[in-house]
């Protein structure tokens, strides 16, 4: 019998340092009005000094495990662009912080698409019978790679973490996750990148150029490609699962920019009222954004069992991916 993956628990965590637009406008050439109208963002959260991605990931992971009623899981998969160190991966540290030392744990790097890639990876582990439960986390301390001199990126990103526990099952229906549509285009890697710090720059024998150690993005081109690829990918996954746009109760997309979410919903023919959007409150939290948005909507009581969610993301790589999820009857809120 084909094994499937089911959502068994969910949780999220935000660091305590709230940064309203006005605080950024006080130290760089921008304004609350520009940020709100161009991105929909009113505030974001930055991790306190000393707090790293593994700290946020462990908090979100603990909440998801509590929601699933589990003290242990079979594996930990962490999606992040901002690992604690370039080497080793951060997931084993998260597992150790959760008292799960010994279980398989590894990172997935697909920037803002990371959580969808990590979910697909977890579904593969479950389908192959490697484990019966997987903790899938998206966590970022994006503030650590933002260039304080670059107003175009500094105002967009925030820190945070979200997590889901997936459990193996044998049926479709409530809780089922998948199928997936995933893709990449490495010819676009310069559009979203941190140029320095990897083998390419070290092999060049040259010191990093000023600013190259920070995140950079060609915002306008990314905007265009984000809408195009998410729409294509979302349509592909709807085709795989046999749903029409009208069957989707919630569009749960990567929170890149409010205007991207609105445009995508319009292109897909999904009413704006069905779009999950928490970007105003948390900014773009990259790999954390989808589970964070879904958990906040869950905590606010917006879902009922059987609701159909369409998840879609686009990010550096370039990468993109989509999946679907039928909301489960979670018993440990
Ligand atoms: N405050 C004020 N002005 C700013 C600014 C800021 N924070 N950032 C850029 N500007 C200026 C630019 O310098 C430019 O000025 P100019 O016209 O005098 O040259 C003007 O605003 C327009 O810049 P542009 O980059 O074309 O704006 P935009 O409407 O495309 O919005 C983004 C910029 C970044 C908000 C938008 O492109 C975007 O959201 N892109 C996708 C981001 C994303 O999703 N990234 C995550 C990867 S999935």
Automatic annotation (TrEMBL):
UniProt entry tagged with the keyword Secreted: no
Cell compartment(s), UniProt: Cytoplasm
Pathway(s) annotated for this protein in UniProt: Lipid metabolism; fatty acid biosynthesis
Residues annotated as domain Beta-ketoacyl-[acyl-carrier-protein] synthase III C-terminal: 241-327
Residues annotated as the enzyme's active site: 112, 254, 284
Keyword tRNA-binding: no
Reaction(s) catalysed by this chain's protein: malonyl-[ACP] + acetyl-CoA + H(+) = 3-oxobutanoyl-[ACP] + CO2 + CoA
Major subcellular location class: cytoplasm
Protein name (Swiss-Prot/TrEMBL): Beta-ketoacyl-[acyl-carrier-protein] synthase III
Source organism of the structure: Catenulispora pinistramenti
Phylogenetic classification of the source organism: Bacteria, Bacillati, Actinomycetota, Actinomycetes, Catenulisporales
Gene behind the chain: fabH
């Amino acid at each position: 019998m084909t094994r499937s993956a089911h959502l068994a628990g969910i949780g999220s965590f935000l660091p305590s340092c709230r940064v309203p637009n006005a605080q950024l406008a006080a130290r760089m050439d921008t304004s609350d009005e520009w940020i709100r109208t161009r991105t929909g963002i009113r505030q974001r959260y930055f991790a306190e000094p000393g707090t790293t991605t593994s700290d946020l990931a462990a908090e979100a992971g603990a909440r998801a495990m509590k929601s699933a009623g589990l003290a242990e899981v079979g594996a930990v998969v962490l999606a992040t662009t901002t690992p604690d160190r370039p080497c080793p991966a951060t997931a084993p540290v998260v597992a150790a912080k959760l008292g799960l030392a010994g279980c398989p744990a590894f990172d997935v790097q697909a920037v803002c698409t990371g959580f969808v890639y990590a979910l697909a990876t977890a579904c593969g582990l479950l389908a192959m019978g490697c484990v019966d439960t997987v903790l899938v986390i998206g966590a970022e301390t994006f503030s650590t790679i933002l260039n304080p001199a670059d107003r175009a990126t500094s105002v967009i990103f925030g820190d945070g973490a979200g997590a889901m526990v997936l459990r193996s099952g044998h049926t479709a229906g409530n809780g089922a996750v998948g199928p997936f549509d995933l893709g990449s285009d490495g010819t676009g890697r310069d559009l979203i990148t941190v140029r320095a710090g990897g083998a390419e720059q070290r092999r060049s024998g040259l010191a990093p150029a000023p600013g190259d150690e920070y995140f950079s993005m060609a915002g306008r081109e990314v905007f265009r490609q984000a809408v195009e690829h998410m729409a294509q990918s979302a349509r592909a996954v709807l085709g795989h699962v046999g749903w029409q746009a009208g069957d989707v109760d919630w569009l749960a997309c990567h929170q890149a920019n409010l205007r991207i979410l609105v445009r995508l919903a319009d292109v897909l023919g999904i009413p704006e009222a069905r779009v999950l959007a928490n970007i105003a409150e948390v900014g773009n939290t990259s790999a954390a954004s989808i589970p964070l948005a879904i958990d906040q909507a869950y905590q606010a009581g917006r879902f009922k069992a059987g609701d159909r969610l369409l998840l879609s993301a686009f990010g550096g790589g370039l990468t993109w991916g989509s999946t679907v999820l039928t909301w489960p009857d979670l018993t440990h809120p």
